[in-house]
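U., I forgot to send this yesterday:
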Amino acid sequence: MPKKTFFVLSKKYHLVAMLLLITVSAYSQDLEPRVYANVPKNLNVIGVGYAYMDGNVLTEPSLPITDFTIQSHNLAASFVRTFGLSNKLARVQVSLPYTFMDGSANVNGDNINGSRSGFSDMKVRLGVNLLGSPALDKAEFGKFEQKTILGVSFVTSIPTGKYYDDKRINIGTNRWGFKPEIGISKRFAHVYAEVYGGIWFYTNNNDFLGKKLEQKPTYSLQAHASYYFKNHMWIGFNTNWFFGGKTITDGVSDDSQIDNWRVGGTFSTPIAKGQSIKFQYHVGAYTNNGLNYYALTAAYQYSFF
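Result:
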């Protein structure tokens, strides 16, 4: 068949190096250890990251697309600021990715290939540790021993991504997303165990190929186990599960419910005072509908008061 273009488509101070994992994973498939980490207040973290993804990274698995593979190169800049809120540790994180992608697909029997580049959707996370993590300054923090932390977050996905209303494949989603989340972090000597649960809610995309696209909520669950060495290097095992997210196009429900499970690992090491580098790999362990890809990420971050 003829090919068409893709365009239709101190011992404690070093904990600050654990705070940020650049959010360059695709869409809602986040694997972010240490989101509720205990760190000092008035801390700033600037990060830059790169991610390479290969596979089916579509935002909407209901699209009539088969045999889809894409290679995606993603850059991201991120900023985190911690502060005190009613004597509780709180933080705000802003992340903005830029994506270069190219690949091929089969759409309704037609072979398609091409490329796309542009900004992805910005994410803003506002969180507060309700229990086990008081807002401490740098001097007080060095004397505090973390045990169990209970925290909550509210994540907003802002439709800043590049989007064409007449294309099937886009970098941006052309809609807002909101995720309330609750998380627990527990320290066991050199091991930190974490569990987060949240629900993504979406506004409608009223410019989807001339139609209205709705999506039901997506339920998410993450778990992380990390081991920390005396030199402040750490390694971690990461997993997440996403379920739901059925799409409805102009009132017609699609066979698009997501049931995805991903696993991966993270390695982080300090390279200088307030500086660290981090690497992560994750892959689909089970997927029923799209989002079957693997990802390699690398990030650098600088922490300062």
